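Progress narrative, Year 2. Work on VWFD domain-containing protein from Astatotilapia calliptera advanced from sequence curation to structure prediction during this period.
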Amino acid sequence: MLLLKCYYIVFFPYLSVFGTGGSVTTKETQKFTCRTYGSGVVQPFKGLGYYVRSNCPFTLTRFTHNRVEYDITIRRGDSGLLVQVEITMNKVRTVLQNGSILVEKKSSLLPLSVTWHSVPGGIDSLWVRGYIMYESLNKVCREFFSYTMECLQVKTPFYIQLCEENIYSFENSKYVHCAFFKEIALHCGNKSYVWQKWRAITKCAEPTCPGDLVYKEEGNAFIPSCSNPNPSFSSQAITSTCVCPKGKVLDDHAEDFRCVSVPSCPCVFSGRTYLTGDRRNTKCQACICDGGGWNCSENSCLGRCDIEGQFVTTFDGKKYVVPGKCTYVASQGLNWTINVGFSGKHASIQTVNASLSASLIIYTEWFRYINTKSLTNFSHFLDHALVFWQSSMYVEVHTSFGMKIQVQVSPEIQLYITPPGKHTGTISGLCGNNNKDTTDDFTSSSGIIENSPEPFALSWSVGRCTPNIPPTCINTDNEIFADEKCSVLNNPAGIFAKCHGYIPTDQFHTACILRTCNCGTNLVQCLCVALGNYAKACASLGVELGDWRKATNCCKHLKMQICFPFTAHDL
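Result:
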């Protein structure tokens, strides 16, 4: 009996689209063939063949091309012949079984051909031939590496093979190709022959940069900017990057990647941008923007130390929080010592005026303030100080040597110290040294400059002091209340907005939340005290906010006898 052997060939033509909207012609095609025949012999695309004897289905090949998944699964019968071949491409199945071909729907274009030989009872051989289009990329590999001989030398053949393997199945991905060529060029260095040639050979264009930036193959990872025109440079920070043209820096205060000369850099203060030549003025100082920095006149106002609860601002403007409810030396000089003692709820102020003589104590005067009852109808002269009620909220002490001390008595005790304009000797204590340099404000009682506020403050404690003021919120409900209510400080359209251009709100906002959420039961009082501290700071620069208490309902909640906005005259 003569059996007619029939060969069936299904060929799926190849079409490649490169980039968007255009087809390219295959200039060079390389064929790779995988075969299986007999009862289980498999000859892979590359390498030696092997034998698999099984009637279970298994995958003959699976790959992805141009983001389309391809899968060919085969199954042999007990006779050893193939009884089923399933070709899946882009989720469309074509099944060869029982001498028939079943295609679920219209076939897609496929960069391979499948050839099989049918015999009675099944298929005795199956060929899968892949047509891998290189678009002359293998030629590009060889041309590229012809310029790297001085660099790679005997390793060149290995890298050519690596180049071709890198391209395989990623023929249309310029990113895959160009990343490979770029790494080799970087490996050879900017003085190599291939450095100047590789983009032209491979047609790998330079990446595009946003705005005014230009691409640099080897540049500093940290781009010079208006905020940092001279960043630190390290050879390890060299990378491919986008930089400003020579002589310009990035305006990192703008959003459009604009490059400007350093003299044209804007300035920023309290979130507001100022152009070169713009001015900002306060009661104490005038400043002009000059190339990203501020040129300011000498501060005509004397430094002031603020002790507002546990929150301290030094004479030179450094802010911190004391760690414990203890007694501290707030400030001391040649002829004065001021101690501040914190109790469980409030702070008590103790002022000690010593003799004017540096070598002999001839007189000592004490003034002690604990609560409002101790100063009822109190207004008189001491030998070296005048003590009087400045208003129903403030008691003031003016010394004969020019120091001014203001005590806020309601709703919470707070202390404001203005040192004498002309003083001799060293000032020290929690309030710092009043030398217009914040870097040494944390000078301890032993003369060591501390890096953090806690050891500094503890060194100025009178007697033993244990840190016991929580640095974070300890009550979740209070924290939610504080987050909501303290946000009024940052409102760009709110009652405090007028001062935003003079005093940043960030540290006052943080203090407001911490003070309020750890307040206990009288949250509104603590909130209003914190808001009032920002209002006082604004008033000290001549910025009058208007009736902030009414706008924040602080008059209503505190039922204060006097409810008026702070003015510079009050301070």
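Confidence is low (pLDDT under 50) at residues 1-30, 345-366, 370-378. The first helix runs from residue 137 to 145.
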